[in-house]
């Protein structure tokens, strides 16, 4: 069994993945900004699971250094999961929010990766799993801050995989579609409702669509477990009932047609085209 450090475990994918891996017998170091705001430690303790909860802010160099000094060289697997979502057209999004999203989703993973690499390299083994998104491979309007951070994470991970392949370190990208987490439901970020752009409204429809397939966070946890426990050497692992269909939809369109689709003026025309292309009916989500 492995000793696994996971970031962003207060809720959603990180929370479910922690419990899933601990129940499978792994020793999990679950990190989050504010452990007092989550019941993960209590739930794991009551079930007598091998989970250690530590405070970690992936945005902060000193916080990352403190945690990795404490766990030493014991981490076999790093799961970079911490992430935030923002929804706005580019003109409406503040520069500070662009920076905040990039700081957590991209630089947070870079910080933690750099912290574990020396020990893994010296040991000649280790696994790094970066939780990206299908938005790391297809650019969707009104989430440019998020998309940019995930595109950056995908490029970083592909470079990393090449560099450490000869050191015995495995690297993987897990790419969820829309998953039923607080970030995509109860805590779904709002968009500027005074915007002249329709795109925040349209993107919200993908998340609020009552007909979207059920996708609990543990499906991502199961994929992460597969990466950790199997000999599967793929770099990318799309996961979720809509992940492959979204990726296939984008691949079926030229860049020009993708831009033209996003540029349709009327919501009704956009929703009708999405339904024709994918079978996803967003018309009742408005």
Explain what this protein looks like in three dimensions:
The protein is α/β, with parallel strands linked by helices and 286 residues long. The chain has one domain (3-193, 213-242): NAD(P)-binding Rossmann-like Domain (Rossmann fold). It has 10 helices and 7 strands. It has helices at 12-23, 40-46, 61-71, 95-123, 144-164, 199-208, 218-229, 243-251, 255-262, 267-278, and strands spanning 3-6, 27-32, 51-55, 77-80, 126-131, 169-176, 236-239. Helix 1 (12-23) crosses helix 7, helix 3 (61-71) packs parallel to helix 4 (95-123) and helix 4 (95-123) runs parallel beside helix 5 (144-164). The longest helix has 29 residues, at 95-123. The mean pLDDT is 96.
Number of domains: 1
CATH fold call? Rossmann fold
% residues in beta strands: 5-15%
Which residues form runs of ≥5 with pLDDT under 50?
none
How would you sum up the global shape?
Answer: globular
The CATH architecture classification is 3-Layer(aba) Sandwich
Order of helices and strands: EHEHEHEHEHEHHEHHH
Task: Please tell me the overall pLDDT.
Answer: 96
For the sheet with most strands, the description reads: 7 strands, parallel
For this structure, what is the CATH class? Alpha Beta
């Amino acid at each position: 069994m492995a000793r696994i450090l996971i970031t962003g475990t207060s809720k959603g994918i990180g929370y479910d993945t922690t419990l899933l891996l601990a129940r499978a017998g792994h020793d999990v170091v679950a990190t989050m900004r504010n452990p007092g705001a989550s019941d993960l430690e209590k739930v794991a303790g009551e079930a007598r699971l091998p989970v250690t909860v530590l405070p970690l802010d992936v945005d902060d160099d000193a916080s990352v250094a403190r945690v990795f000094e404490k766990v030493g060289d014991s981490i076999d697997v790093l799961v970079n999961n911490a992430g935030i979502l923002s929804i706005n057209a580019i003109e409406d999004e503040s520069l500070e929010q662009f920076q905040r999203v990039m700081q957590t989703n991209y630089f947070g993973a870079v910080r933690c990766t750099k912290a574990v690499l020396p020990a893994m390299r010296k040991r000649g083994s280790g696994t790094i799993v970066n939780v990206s998104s299908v938005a790391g491979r297809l650019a969707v309007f009104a989430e440019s801050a998020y998309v940019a951070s995930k595109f950056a994470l995908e490029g970083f991970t592909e470079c990393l995989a090449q560099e450490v392949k000869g050191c015995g370190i495995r690297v993987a990208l897990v790419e969820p579609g829309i998953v039923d987490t607080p970030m995509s439901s109860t805590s779904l970020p709002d968009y500027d409702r005074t915007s002249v752009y329709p795109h925040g409204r349209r993107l919200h429809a993908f998340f609020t669509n009552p007909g979207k397939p059920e996708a609990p966070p543990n499906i991502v946890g199961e994929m992460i477990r597969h990466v950790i426990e199997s000999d599967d050497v793929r770099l990318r692992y799309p996961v979720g009932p809509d992940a492959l269909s979204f990726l296939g939809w984008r691949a079926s369109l030229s860049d020009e047609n993708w831009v033209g689709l996003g540029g349709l003026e009327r919501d009704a025309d956009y929703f009708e085209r999405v339904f024709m292309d994918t079978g996803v009916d967003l018309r009742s989500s408005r």
